[in-house]
Amino acid sequence: xxxxxxxxxxxxxxxxxxxxxxxxxxxxxxxxxxxxxxxxxxxxxxxxxxxxxxxxxxxxxxxxxxxxxxxxxxxxx
Length: 77
Known about the structure:
By secondary structure, the chain is an all-beta fold.
């Protein structure tokens, strides 16, 4: 568990590293890192991964129509 700061705000998050399969974009192994919100939604907040030519970083920009309150948000921007 970690606290991360994204462009949308600061969140309590769960960090994990999924096992990637070797293919045209990824070299395989555990190089991707994913942070999801630490609440019942488990919304992907950030994804980072090296690829063949550089790296990729994806941040959540918005959310809508949630069933429960977004209790993992610490502060908004």
